[in-house]
Structures
1.
Amino acid sequence: MSLPWKLQETFSPEEIQFIVENEPIKIFPRFTTRSKVRGNRGNKTGQTRWKLLTASDEPLNNLVAIQTTEVAFWIALLLKQQGKCSIVAPGWLRLTQLQRFIDYELKNTERFSELPWNWLVVAQLLFSKAADDLQDPVHLLRGKVQDLREIRLGKIGQGLKHLNESHLQLDNLSLLEINELRPFVLGVMNKLKQVHGSIADEQEEEQ
Amino acid sequence: MSYYDIDDILADANKFPCRFNYDIPGLGYLEGNIGKDIKINAKVELPLWLARILAIVGGDPGIGDEGALPFVELMAPDMLSPKVMNAIKSGPVTLDVHSINSHFYALAVKWATLFNDRDLVQILNYMLLERSQEINNFASSIQLEKLGRGRDMGPFMLTLDEFEKKLYRESHESCKDMKKWIVQK
């Protein structure tokens, strides 16, 4: 088919990254694009402006150095690459906060902690592209994120023992984790449904 | 399970033992004697796609009081014998499903549909859950350095039936892509 088999029923991790890169994030710009009020507002200076279709270009045309602004993640990464901004890490990406999540995960064995849906992708992207902007040392943060991931993987393994043909509740599981599970869970649950469906006719007759 | 599904076609080609309820002229080639008749109570192994239809459609409904018998009667295959069922109940993970039948699940579901077999469904449910845990364990334990060389398959991997192989391949690919993405940068 026109779509390769791997992508027919799921996303690749790169596509998940693409989705996450559309989210807003805070940055410290290192340059100013706001045109001065004193001059002609008609913008005759010939300065190039941002004209975007998929993201809001208003904050980008009003950048003031060292004043936080929210822009789309992919723009932030582009600017960061050129050294034109530093990215403000989200609040949960701190050692203390991550430790709190880990404690919660360990205490509540039956549920997942309330990490944002994109935590794994954001953490990976920031570790590799904006490591110098994080408040805590990257290697420690990496360790904590890995801890969280492994604890959650263990819980997922426990949860898979209760697969059934009708439903599955996965509160607070992140998109990337769901995406990794998808082929397996769908395969098993579809087969279970098929197995149960083979006698469904009789039940209807009984009623 | 669709019309063009290759695995479904292959599963349907599996032979099941059947007993004929009628004398039928000309059908001797099913037994191997071309040009002869087939006798009542003859035991023949028929592919499921044929047996399934012949076990439903019957002779003249006008004859006899208790309704017409179908052309053939399907007999329980080895694949679903009590011996196999007990083996599943005792330990699905150690069972060599592939050597019992490489399309075990597909055929068992078809059988359960034909006979409304509640017990079989329960056993299948249990077997599927237990074995899928093991498949998930194998699929998610990946070492990227070893991927290039042919990995040595554990004994469990050789016991998978066709559905389980597909499940394993898909979840393995998913875990592999995920790991590659995390390592890449």
2.
Amino acid sequence: SGPATPPDISDKMSESIDKAKEACAEDTASGKCAAAWDEVEELSAAASHARDKLKETSDPLEAYCKDNPETDECRTYDN
Amino acid sequence: MAARSFSSASTTTILLRSGRWRRTMRAAAFPFRVSCSAAAGGTVVIGLAADSGCGKTTFVRRLTSVLGAGTAVAAAPPWGGNPGSNTLLGDAATVICLDDYHSLDRAGRKERGVTALDPRANDFDLMYRQLKAIKEGRAVAKPIYNHATGLLDPPELITPPKILVVEGLHPMYDERVRGLLDFSIYLDISSDIKFAWKIQRDMAERGHSLESIKASIEARKPDFDAYIDPQKQYADAVIEVLPTRLIAAADDDGDEGKVLRVKLIMKEGVEHFAPAYLFDEGSTISWIPCGRKLSCSYPGIKFSYFPDTYFGHEVSVLEMDGKFDKLDELIYVESHLSNLSTKYYGEVTQQMLKHADFPGSNNGTGLFQTIVGLKIRDLYEQVVAERAASPPALAAVA
């Protein structure tokens, strides 16, 4: 399933869901309600992007080699 | 990608990469950045429209991979700038996200009760001015909309690339911006599939449930129908993603969104864009490639090709329903498609294999995105050749 969402975005996300439910309690057709759910959508997208980014750096060797390209286990020569 | 381009001395790059360099960006303080300077041919602008969570990112990754042939460097965000930047720099293409042109930040939209889909939340004047400037070969300082904080950050410098891809909710909304696009694509995801994809994406999120995902889609729908969906009539190519027809709805055991029917709708008569076809151009063909030469498991694969009309335009439609089991067998399908704008036999298959881990690599979404990517490369080459043949009257004399 891959890495978990970073906690800061994850917290914002569940907060915005609660707020959206609140905003829509009175009137589900109001702009306020749509805007609140739109914020949830934006944060979901941001969370998924953050997870993708973590996936890219999930290889421990790759992460190490980014910082230490000159070490034995990281050196690559094209020819 | 950035580090490589500065110098070959790795000590320098490490020093530069330590991150101390980050500072607030003011016009004077732009760190020197890597970017492809526009060739003499000027910039070709490609528009990509889709709703949030509909696979724009995957498409952009496939596209930059096709366009950036010849290097191992993947598209990366601008080096040394704002970590919240949405821009991607490849060696041939720069991708900018149109969310950067929000006129209202998250709090502002909330206050007025408008969504990001609403044109009132976006600054089309600035979008037009800056895209026009880039197309004319001038660098611009483009704002950054930070998705994590919901704030508009100080601008970043965008220099004219060979190919500029603008992706977002409204690339074809404003008539002036539309006029700047050399080619436009719309990703049209049907509601059932959109729902399935969002469940896959968000179900793991704390506090998000089936109900709240549904509520979010429902609440945004009126604005989506009013402002985003109508843009597809202007697109040169539309990729439609629909539920499969190979499995009867009755025995569909919650596989919603796993098997897809994908249509590539290509406008006829667009300059520099010759639609791809199957077997015989202009015929209506239905083809099941499964048999001795291609092993398919349930529910199999079915291709269709036919002429059609789309919002009053003549179009050619390629359709693929089902999924591949073994990606390398795609070569069998590729060899029966024509007008793919490949540079060598098997290029589509090779591009798909290169990114086998991307979503959609075993179905029509990946196949058609790759084909559109090759078409865009071809269009770019034609446009550049044309401009070289007839230099503009105002060509700068060196």
